[in-house]
Amino acid sequence: MIKFPSEASLLKKYDVPVPRYTSYPTMPYWDTEKFTGENWIESVKKTFDETNDSKGISLYIHLPFCESLCTYCACNTRITKNHKVEIAYIRSLLKEWEQYKKIFGRRPIIRELHLGGGTPTFFSPENLKWLLSYLLEDCNIHDKREFSFEGHPNNTTAEHLQTLFDLGFRRVSFGVQDLDEKVQRTINRIQPFENLQKVTMLSRAIGYESISFDLIYGLPFQTPSTVINTFEKVLTLRPDRVSFYSYAHVPWLKPGQRGYEDADLPSDVIKRLLYETGRSMLKSEGYEDVGMDHFALPSDSILRAQSQGKLRRNFMGYTTTETELLIGLGCSAISDAKYAYAQNVKKVEDYALSISTGTLAIAKGHTQTDQDLHLKMCILEVACQGKITFENLLPLQEKSIIQALETFCSEGILERAQRGLQVTESGRAFIRNICSAFDMRHYSNSKTGVNNLFSKAI
Ligand SMILES: C[S@@+](CC[C@H](N)C(=O)[O-])C[C@H]1O[C@@H](n2cnc3c(N)ncnc32)[C@H](O)[C@@H]1O
Ligand code: SF4
Fold first, then answer.
1. Residue 446: pLDDT band by 50, 70, 90 thresholds?
2. Ligand 2 mean position, distance from CA 215 (Å)
3. How far is 253 from 219, CA to CA, in rounded Å?
């Protein structure tokens, strides 16, 4: 019988800083010097022209404002109680979209639309309606549209839900994170269960088809028993999807995370136990794994997409749409035009200024090489399908990749299957590490300090 290393020793070996691979190359390895604004416009135009009507395009809109800072948060936010900022920001978004429409040269077909943040529900329902009505003017809407938004349970109102539903939104994801009082106090996010219950019931009554909850493991003062209590409550609401993220602790990038001590965080072993605790509660209630860190009820379209090999991953996370052009609007938003990536400037003021001069607000970008495109395909296959087919493996000549895959096989993380290599059940914990085996930009680049930008894999 083959003897594999113990799970504990693998967890220790692989709990190293690794990207989440919502792009390849990951942003710290973008070749920003070779990228120009003209490259970007050409890539957008080329991908748009190649996009057939059945695919359509994706739009991500970054709405950065929040009324108060949850100290654990790693998103690009602007904290303010001044709601007058809404109008000026919407004007910039609409102007930016005009620029893109000029590049397209014909009406786009919108397949996927996601409002992220920050807190989209910081904006009033009237302002969201204004933004979206203008944004979708001169656009065709795909018959299989997927419109979704992130709602904060503390400030999502019936009017928000109804307004967005009327505009075609059918999916909402609520930030839950954790329901324990001490954990909530520590991360400055007081959010009673009743608020979550109320918005979930309202969403169902209005007709939302998929309700998703975001939870996190590894937050300060979480223990297996607080996680059990949180999941017991959460599961009474039967969300269609659950994202159970590993807490990204990056206080050198997010000073808010200095609001608690490193000693308040669960140890690596406990952190893994928290994940296993939540996962086994989800599994025992009929939820199934989707890629990494995600779960869904069998009735949710994302599981059908996974079993048909149609699950995709982009900057918005896992998705069921096959679009090849993703335009990100707003400060810090990232766009993917297949042959190139681009990110907007992060600060609200810099974004507004750039847009007011009639240009895009790109801060940096990357143009894809043929090798990048192939490795991206391999990484997506691992992250979405949990396998890597011979078809994608055979062209790979890189020694480091072949050696890493052999090691994963000898450790019981990957196994040989009929058409390639398959992630084993116990190997699921290491999906981020398997993806990193294909990351030639990481292997061949000696940039120092880059690891500090990533959170640990497990
Ligand atoms: C833009 S935020 C959520 C939307 C809304 N503002 C709210 O708080 O409900 C998107 C998600 O990112 C996740 N997130 C934020 N910071 C994180 C961190 N440091 N580690 C892991 N996940 C994080 C949270 O689960 C959060 O719900
Ligand atoms: S978790 Fe949500 S509400 Fe809290 S700071 Fe981050 S984006 Fe804002």
1. very low
2. 13
3. 17
